[in-house]
Amino acid sequence: xARYIDIHCGFVGATEQQLREAHRDRLxxxxxxxxxxxxxxxxxxxxxxxxxxxxxxxxxxxxAHERAGDPTAEVYEIxxxxxx
Amino acid sequence: xARYIDIHCGFVGATEQQLREAHRDRLxxxxxxxxxxxxxxxxxxxxxxxxxxxxxxxxxxxxAHERAGDPTAEVYEIxxxxxx
Lengths: 84, 84
Hints:
The structure is a homodimer. Chain A is an alpha+beta fold. Chain A has helices at about 15-35, 60-65; strands at about 1-10, 35-45, 50-55, 75, 80-84. The two termini of chain A are about 25 Å apart. The interface between A and B is medium-sized, with 32 and 32 residues. Strand 5 of chain A pairs antiparallel with strand 2 (about 35-45) of chain B, so a sheet runs across the interface.
């Protein structure tokens, strides 16, 4: 398992409720791809959303997002993490 | 105070030690701008790094990164967050 951050655009003006619904749609497909979505952040001004997840592969993340209806090609495997 | 994610590129092949040093350089300038850097993630294959921080403004984040020697224009105010 590895960790990934992916980036989505096009969410200008989206609300917390909409982000919550998108996250719920992702959680609904987690099992099919072995992906565990942890967090989602949204900048409603630029319409940019970020997801943090754990998954068996980059391809699994791509497929899970596609199944959830919010495909993105911007998936980064963050193999290194530093916390304060 | 608000939360921000910023994106940096150009770290292809960087190591955990290098990410740790970059993070330390950021922590050293936190006080001057009121920025609190929480986490940094790195995808060494694409050379993409992400920072999560709390700050009084987007401009403060921009200035803190500039002072730390790793400027970026890609700073997103993530006013909405959802966790699983």
